Amino acid sequence: MNDRELERVSAFMDGETGSDEPSPIGGLLETGASRRTWERYHLIHDCLAGSLPAYRDPDLARRITDAIAAQPTVLAPARPRATPFARPLAGLAIAASVAAMAILTLQYHRGGAETAPVAPAVANQSASDSIAPRRLNLASGRGDAAARLQQARTPSPMNRYLVNYNEYRRSGAVQGMLPYVRIVAHDTDE
Amino acid sequence: MTPMNSGHAAQLPLFCLLLAIACPPALAEPPAATPTAQQLINEMSRAQRRLNYDGVFIYRRNRQIDTMRLIHKADASGERERLISLTGMPREVIRDERSVTCIFPDNQSVMVEKSRPRQYVAQLPEPIERISTHYFFTMDGEDRVAGRRTWIVNIRPKDSYRYGYQLWIDTEAKLLLKSELKNKSGSALEQIMFTNLDVYDSIPDEMLKPTLSGRDYTWYHNASAEQRAPGGDSDWRVTWLPEGFDMSEHERQSLVASGDPVDHIVFSDGLATVSVFIEKLRGDPEIVFGPLQMGAVNAFARYAGGFQVTAVGEVPPTTVQRMANSVVPGD
């Protein structure tokens, strides 16, 4: 692999390739050398992220491959391959979660939001106009299970975090990006 | 042909050359002395805060493009700005010296957070020596953006724990007209670019008022925060930081709902900033943990003994993940 390909693999692992770039995964599986590169990069990534396991089995991938090869062939439609590392959670648009939180606040505390307790909210959903109110209706007619679900997803504080982060970021010497664009921006495809 | 004639012919190109050097073409502006990257960045920071301007820009990340309008007013009473989405729902953010108001017509809600007082904001610039330990600063020629001449400044990180920037700065007003945020290998993760920008002597107050009154909206206020001395006693410690990062602020906010404190610890290498939030969880802590992304802002949330620890920053995913993972209770 040349340097450029290696950089692409590195960027891909960090979730930093542009969405219009093709995934380098296909090319990685072609040769033993590129598979070892992939393994090595994961090791580096784990090391950088401070999440190295206490013991690392260098032979794990080979044993899994062998075990899969030994399985009888199942004639069934192929399922999409799961990506081998954590991806940013889909739909976790921070601004969108503000929207979701506010909808539920509106539902429970209209007129008294300033002093009322924070309403439980569905944090992880798109703020698209049509979807949000529908979820609200589902939530308002909740039984115990729905109530537990709402409890479970307590208001995502991400939006508040983002505003507070922006306020501190402003004090930096360089304002490379305008601070609030990420709040005003829309997430249509997440 | 006489020897005299040939002498004239030989002198003519030299004369033309001298003329060209002495009198540049009338249409080109006189060449301005190029400042250093650091000077320009400092001037840009001042201009962004002190000028009155109104511009339209595009914001691009992944495959999405939004168009927004930014109006900024600075006078004796301080800075005020208003950011409006011109595409999709007309979301707005209005910021003044006291608060940041985010208006979401999508669901008729308004979120109000406190803004940071001016005295905290006006500390600039960071000592350049400190920043240049971890970034390369270079001038990268000129370009034209929104019909204005710009200088291009490149800021490249020296390691993979931070991002770089390419900035297009107006040669006259010194305002930022275009910006790309890049990872270490140089791929752009986010871009903004003004298509039009006007600088004014003053801006009427009406232009800073929201289009929507918000009268029928639900308002969601957050409580004020208590400043804590950086480096003072804390219930929490972040035990891993990329080289060059120091704690710059520590504040404790209390939530309206529960009254529980939220610790907010801010780290900076002089250019990039990472916030670490530590908040007590109530009820079933089955909330979203792991990596999150919003444009080039990365966050990583984890659960730690009844608390949610979240690191947020305009830095690569690895940096926030590792910082969040390193948070331990203080002594």
Mean pLDDT of chain A: 57
Helix count, DSSP H or I runs of 4 or more residues of chain B: 5
Rg of chain B, rounded, reads: 25 Å
Beta strand count of chain B: 21
Order of helices and strands of chain B: HHEEEEEEHHEEEEEEEEEEEEEEHE
Q: What proportion of the residues of chain A form beta strands (DSSP E)?
A: under 5%
Which value, in Å, is the CA radius of gyration of chain A? Answer: 22 Å
Name the biggest interface: A-B, 84 and 110 residues
How far apart are the termini of chain A? Answer: 32 Å
Count the helices of chain A. How many? 9
- Globular, elongated, flat, extended or rod-shaped: what is the shape of chain B? globular
Could you say which structural class the secondary elements and strand pairing of chain A correspond to?
mainly alpha
Give a quick set of tags describing it:
heterodimer; A: mainly alpha; elongated; B: 12-stranded mixed sheet
Task: Tell me about this structure.
- Chain A is 49% helix and 0% strand.
- Chain A is built from nine helices and no strands.
- Chain A has helices at residues 3-13, 25-28, 32-48, 60-70, 94-109, 131-140, 144-152, 158-169, 181-184.
- In chain A, helix 1 crosses helix 3 (32-48), helix 5 packs across helix 6 and helix 5 (94-109) packs across helix 8 (158-169).
- The two termini of chain A are 32 Å apart.
- The relative contact order of chain A is 0.09.
- In chain B, strand 5 and strand 6 form a beta hairpin.
- Residues 1-7, 23-28 and 119-124 of chain B have low confidence and may be disordered.
- Chains A and B meet through helix 1, helix 5, helix 7, helix 8 and helix 9 of A and helix 2, strand 1, strand 2, strand 3 and strand 4 of B.
